[in-house]
Amino acid sequence: MTDTFDGHTSDYNRLKILEFALNTSSQGFVVWDQDQKLVAWSQKCFEFWYQPADLIRPGLPMAELILHIAKKGAFGKGDPQRLADLEFGRVLKAGKDSREEFTMLDGRIVHVQRHAMQDGGHASTYTDITERKQLEDEINHLATHDTLTNIPNRVLLMDRLELALARADREKTKVAVLFLDLDNFKPVNDIMGHMIGDQILRKMADRMVSCLRKTDTVARFGGDEFAIVMTDVVKTIDVTHMAENLNKILVAPINLGSKEATLGASIGIALYPDNAKTAATLLSLADEAMYVVKHKGKQGFHFTQTKN
């Protein structure tokens, strides 16, 4: 009797420890049987399901739970039953060995991992990965954007330029690359100081952004050098108008509180496929064209004369 009692006690203790571990875990854990009915779950699941604990019960059909969740607006606006049916069908189609991510109503991002079991049911884990995704986004942003101006850097611009060239081939359009160097930035930076110089770079970047179309990209290449990619160019005159607008807006005086600075920009332009076939060559030709403007007295633009 003693051995049996001790064995039951040991099993009971192990079950309590397991229950404690599941309910204090940062993950949600749930088990469904082969008929998509609820078998077991952890307390954390209530948070992911938007449901109070008293609504969750053994044998609860998955379809019924999804309907409750749909009524909370988790799947968007519309008829909850229709949305629930669509979601239930999608989950079944995804399979018992699958993974996915979804965004909760409060903006948190949850990763769901489903594991098939031998009896035909499946177990799922729910993990809040919001912080991880935010960190990944921050790292990606730092890798592809200039930290001073918060506009794209060379890496992102080159990526978008390559995509733009491929699309231009498909759609029989052109791509323009404009290389800009701010005029008189160095003496202003030396006289007014680097903090003022940083303010000027941010203001000039904002002005450039204001000139762009939705499909265009401006990037800082370092120092006072910038580059712009214009996509879906049909007429060269559109590029001319862009350069004229840039020259006009960038030469306007910059208000720095008690001080004022006037710069401007020298702009070199190269076109795809007229002047070059590769992204690197386009940038190089636009850079060379920019120096033509510099040598002619600055504040203007010049199209490269190199033919492809």
Tell me what you see in this structure.
It is a single chain. This protein is α+β, with helices and mostly antiparallel strands. The chain has 2 domains: 2-133, 2-Layer Sandwich (Beta-Lactamase), CATH 3.30.450.20; 150-303, 2-Layer Sandwich (Alpha-Beta Plaits), CATH 3.30.70. It has helices at residues 2-24, 44-49, 62-71, 80-94, 130-144, 154-171, 185-192, 194-211, 236-250, 279-296, and strands spanning 28-32, 38-41, 98-103, 109-116, 122-128, 174-182, 217-222, 225-233, 254-256, 259-261, 265-272, 300-303. The strands form 3 sheets. Strands 2-1-5-4-3 form a 5-stranded antiparallel β-sheet. A hairpin with a 2-residue loop joins strand 9 and strand 10. 26% of the residues are buried. The model is unreliable at 1-5 (pLDDT under 50).
Largest sheet: 5 strands, antiparallel
Q: In order across it, which strands form the biggest sheet?
A: 2-1-5-4-3
Mean pLDDT: 90
CATH architecture descriptor of the largest domain: 2-Layer Sandwich
**Share of residues in strands:** 15-25%
First and last CA, distance: 94 Å
Q: What coarse outline follows from CA principal-axis ratios?
A: elongated
Radius of gyration from CA coordinates: 30 Å
CATH H-level superfamily of the largest domain: Reverse transcriptase/Diguanylate cyclase domain
Tally of strands: 12
Q: How many distinct folded domains? A: 2
Structural class: alpha+beta
In which range does the helix fraction lie? 40-55%
CATH topology of the largest domain: Alpha-Beta Plaits
In the CATH scheme, the class of the largest domain would be: Alpha Beta
Total helices: the number is: 10
- Report the uncertain regions: 1-5
What is the N-to-C succession of helices and strands? HEEHHHEEEHHEHHEEHEEEHE
